[in-house]
Amino acid sequence: MKLAQFAGSKPTTKFIWVVDKLFDICNSSSYIAKSFKAPLDNHNLSFRLTDLHNIANYLSQLTEDYPVRTPLTQGWRKTAVIEFVITIKSICGLTQRLLKRHNHPFMYLLTYKLSQDHLETLFSRIRRRGGRNNNPNTLQFKYALRSCLLKNGIRASKKANCQEPSDVLLSVEPPELTIINQEDHNTFITDNEEVIQFVKLIQQPSLFHDSVLFYM
């Protein structure tokens, strides 16, 4: 359009386009999506890896001119750029490992599943159990987490984006618990071995137990 107000804005336009493209690739959430929001699979893997490497190189070469010309990766505002580059390298390595492995390779990878939104949702549910208290102590966290565990199940996806490993605690169906002593809520009966192991984990003194508030 040749508008005078946008003279010299080409570098800014390129930056916006590159970052928008990166966000699309890092937020693929549907296996039927198209363009840059499509899942990473063996059909587009080489193209996407090339795109991601080019974006990482572009971000690494950005500079700031005040007070002196300095690469962003070495300046005061380096955190965002460095974390973007780390995310890109992590996605590239993880995608190649999951799509190219010999035993049960993934059909595709949805990068949105790697975001911290799911962790924030879990923390939100735990905080909600405490009402107005958003800073639970260890005992409050234990009961809130146990309540969430009993009311929610985890199932492996039938579309091959998620597989059920044997060495993690997965509850396929919400277990039924029978309280033996109403005054002692630490004593209960359940046939679900995963829940028994998990409750032992949060009851027994351990690094996990001692660091609950730190992680929250």
UniProtKB/TrEMBL annotation:
Species lineage? Eukaryota, Metazoa, Spiralia, Lophotrochozoa, Mollusca
PANTHER family annotated for this entry? THAP DOMAIN CONTAINING 9, THAP DOMAIN-CONTAINING PROTEIN 6
Q: Which InterPro entries match?
A: TNP-like_GBD (IPR048366), TNP-like_RNaseH_C (IPR048367)
**Which source organism?**
Elysia marginata
Can you say what this protein is called? THAP domain-containing protein 9
Which ranges carry the Transposable element P transposase-like GTP-binding insertion domain? 2-39
Q: Tell me the ranges covered by the Transposable element P transposase-like RNase H C-terminal domain, including all copies.
A: 112-144
